[in-house]
Design a protein that fits this description.
Radius of gyration: 19 Å
Order of helices and strands: EHEEHEHEHHEHHHEH
Strand content: 5-15%
CATH topology: Rossmann fold
Distance between the termini: 43 Å
Number of helices: 9
Strand order of the largest sheet: 3-2-1-4-5-6-7
Largest sheet: 7 strands, parallel
Structural class: alpha/beta
CATH architecture: 3-Layer(aba) Sandwich
Helix content: 25-40%
CATH superfamily: NAD(P)-binding Rossmann-like Domain
């Protein structure tokens, strides 16, 4: 299977390639706005549709990761990178007749639950399990752009030939034959390989001088990540299950490990895709170097 990854040089793209890059059933094409020193990269800008055209030909699937990941970014920045950019990637995939589209959505599509209820919802006993069918509650322009991406994917997959013919010719502009399947993965927290554990962001903050290990900030961030962690091996498994699936037309799944306090209902990915996460942030009591 030939798979094109947009934003392949980022944290999530690198994790996917580390997990799946050596698998015989996959041939990956890495696309990013900049070259990568260690792997062949197609350099293209997702905000420019003409720049993307041609790079999608001959691929069976697209994993769309490229985005501006900044909760404080302006609407203009988000509009170009995450809204126009996502449309462009969908359109380029449609023109190249790519069948499968895996979209990196986000926890921030429902981030207002966390803003409203944190830190209490980080307690594993807190009674909240947001499903893929609950109303979206974006917490930022970034979260809003991911809601757009999910809706755009549904439009591309579910659009049908014009049912009214000449009576309503404008329907023709919304008709697509491809992609034929769209998987929206609402990814929670993925960090670089050095910090791929539930204390990762807390430890990163210490290394960057943002807080001390014995601070309230450290404890708060660790408690949060024990709920939101998506380990690299679970991420790789989830993407693999999407690429191998032959049942989904359009669907939304939580991208999270089997954490005790996850506050979302991950059963849908298990039931539909057979996703069986191996890691649980709640089992960790300390970062790796100090565990006994």
């Amino acid at each position: 299977m030939r798979v094109l990854i947009t934003g392949a040089n980022g944290t999530v793209g690198s994790a996917i390639l580390d997990q799946l890059g050596d698998r015989e059933e996959y041939e990956f094409t890495c696309l990013d706005v900049e070259d990568h020193p260690d792997r062949e990269t197609v350099v293209a800008d997702i905000t420019d549709l003409d720049d993307l055209r041609g790079h999608f030909e001959g691929h069976d699937a697209v994993v769309h990761l490229a985005a501006l990941v900044d909760l404080n970014a302006s609407w203009g920045e988000i509009l170009q990178h995450n809204v126009v950019g996502t449309y462009n990637v969908l359109q380029a995939a449609a023109e190249a007749e790519v069948e499968k589209f895996v979209f990196a959505s986000s926890i921030h599509t429902v981030g207002m639950y966390e803003i409203e209820l944190a830190p209490e919802l980080y307690d594993p006993d807190y009674d909240l399990a947001v499903t893929h069918e609950d109303p979206v509650r974006p917490d930022s322009f970034y979260g809003l752009s991911k809601v757009f991406g999910e809706a755009a994917g549904r439009l591309f997959v579910e659009s049908q030939p014009n049912p009214l013919g000449d009576l309503h010719p404008t329907y023709e502009t919304n008709t697509r034959d491809y992609p034929t399947s769209f998987y929206s993965l609402r990814i929670k927290t993925v960090v670089g390989a050095e910090y791929d554990h539930p204390y990762g962001l807390a430890e990163m903050g210490v290394d960057e001088g943002w807080w001390d290990e014995d601070s309230e900030a450290y404890e708060y961030v660790a408690d949060r990540m024990k709920c939101t962690w998506l380990s690299h091996r679970d991420l790789g498994q989830l993407v693999d299950r999407c690429l191998q699936d032959e049942t989904v037309d359009y669907d939304v799944f939580w991208g999270v490990s089997d954490n005790d306090g996850t506050w979302v209902d991950g059963s849908h990915a298990r039931d539909v895709l057979g996703y069986e996460p191996q890691d649980n942030g709640g089992e960790w009591t300390a970062p790796p170097e100090s565990e006994t």
